[in-house]
Write a structure and sequence with these properties.
mainly alpha, 9 helices, globular
Length: 193
């Protein structure tokens, strides 16, 4: 138990001692995560939540997540759209997927964006390659990312707290399993693979 407390104290001291630069780097990485899917979003949101508190940390993470998604959307739509379309257009499944995305309702798109295990990178690419209006995409982002950012912020800070109280780890595992199950249910219900 002392070992877990030592890890907890080390992480808290690291965030606090890095003053401005640690959280600033986490903020930059939140934006980059929407473009580079290999980065763990929940870690960066957790750092921002720990550094700035729940309210300001939420606002910063929420705004930066939206900025990152918009950058990915614009980058794909304006720069890589022709490249992707030429390379992928020959696949019938691609056309079927684009047709579904074009017809997708705002509430469905917001729900997809709200589920924590939905790959935001793929949602951004598919939305950008489709004929979806930017306004619809933006509104879905504003709605869907609220719960996603809150979820990952809660999970990250609770995971850190679980180093002091292992019972919290059980709650986190249950929440993650429930979220994963919801993401599979949403994927199956909307018929997107």
């Amino acid at each position: 138990m002392d070992f877990l407390n030592d890890i907890y104290n080390f992480i808290i001291n690291l965030v606090n001692s890095s003053s401005f630069y640690g959280p600033l780097l986490a903020c930059l990485l939140i934006v980059l995560e929407s473009i580079l899917p290999i980065l763990p979003l929940f870690v960066f949101i957790g750092i921002v939540f720990i550094a700035y508190g729940y309210v300001f940390g939420f606002l910063v993470s929420y705004i930066l997540t939206i900025v990152g998604c918009i950058l990915a959307f614009i980058l794909v739509r304006k720069v890589f759209n022709n490249y992707f379309t030429i390379k992928i257009r020959k696949y019938a499944k691609f056309d079927k997927l684009m047709s579904k995305i074009d017809k997708m309702q705002l509430s469905t798109l917001a729900l997809i964006m709200a589920v924590p295990f939905t790959p935001a990178f793929m949602v951004n690419i598919c939305a950008a390659l489709s004929k979806m209006q930017f306004r619809k995409y933006f509104m879905a982002l504003l709605i869907g990312k609220v719960s996603l950012v809150f979820f990952w912020g809660f999970i990250a800070t609770s995971l850190l707290e679980s180093l002091k109280n292992p019972k919290i780890l059980l709650v986190i595992c249950l929440m993650l399993l429930l979220s994963y199950g919801c993401s599979k249910l949403v994927t199956k219900k909307i018929d997107i693979e």
